[in-house]
């Protein structure tokens, strides 16, 4: 199924190349994008990303860079040369680090990937945020970090779909909002706390939806993905 600008980003929650290739061959690159996270990238490396790009997939490289500014700048530039569609950093790294990340992206030229920032992980609650020394609510922290990231020139944010409505109200339609914690009706919550269905998330203002196990563990991944895409029409 060829979809202009597919909204579903399938999270590859696997750790070996053979399993990944067998899985992606069951999907259509025109129906989704793919997310490669830390576990898979650590196990398989840049070669996997290159192979997935060669198969026609656009890749969201979810490594959440968070380090001193110069290191992040170089890491972001190196990642951008892999031909990926999008990558991310932690907004909590501060304005200097975020600006350096943007510089690294711009070094890639006109074909640069989108650069977005992580605000508060969707597995965190107000209580777990307080454990880190931050006394405000998750919603307030998300808003604060979003303003910081967008002010320093990033393209958008990773956020819970539950925060998307407020972010749209506060920052308009331009920022890209990528939302994990998406579970179709009847799916298990797993380790996500702030979750919505795909249709609810899009209605809330999400730009793209990260969905893993409901597709990767589906008996027929292609059919599961098609059902989700149909729900977004």
Please characterize this protein's 3D structure:
The structure is a single chain. By secondary structure, the protein is α/β, with parallel strands linked by helices. The protein has a single domain (8-231), classed as Aldolase class I (TIM Barrel, Alpha-Beta Barrel), CATH 3.20.20. Helices cover 43% and strands 16% of the residues. It has helices at residues 17-24, 38-44, 46-54, 69-80, 95-106, 126-131, 138-151, 161-171, 198-204, 213-216, 221-231; strands at residues 8-11, 33-37, 59-65, 86-90, 114-118, 156-158, 176-179, 208-211. It has an 8-stranded parallel barrel with strand order 1-2-3-4-5-6-7-8, surrounded by 7 helices. Helix 7 (138-151) crosses helix 8.
- CATH topology term: TIM Barrel
Number of helices: 11
Cross-sheet strand order for the largest sheet = 1-2-3-4-5-6-7-8
Count of distinct structural domains: 1
- β-strand percent reads 15-25%
Distance between the termini: 13 Å
Structural class determined from secondary elements? alpha/beta
Q: Which H/E pattern describes the elements?
A: EHEHHEHEHEHHEHEHEHH
The whole-angstrom Rg is 17 Å
Mind summarizing the main beta sheet? 8 strands, parallel, barrel
**Multimeric state:** single chain
Poorly predicted ranges (pLDDT <50, ≥5 residues)? none
Q: From the coordinates shown, what is the CATH architecture? A: Alpha-Beta Barrel
Share of helix among residues?
Answer: 40-55%
**C-alpha geometry:** globular
Within CATH, the superfamily carries the name: Aldolase class I
Mean pLDDT: 93
**Name of the CATH class:** Alpha Beta
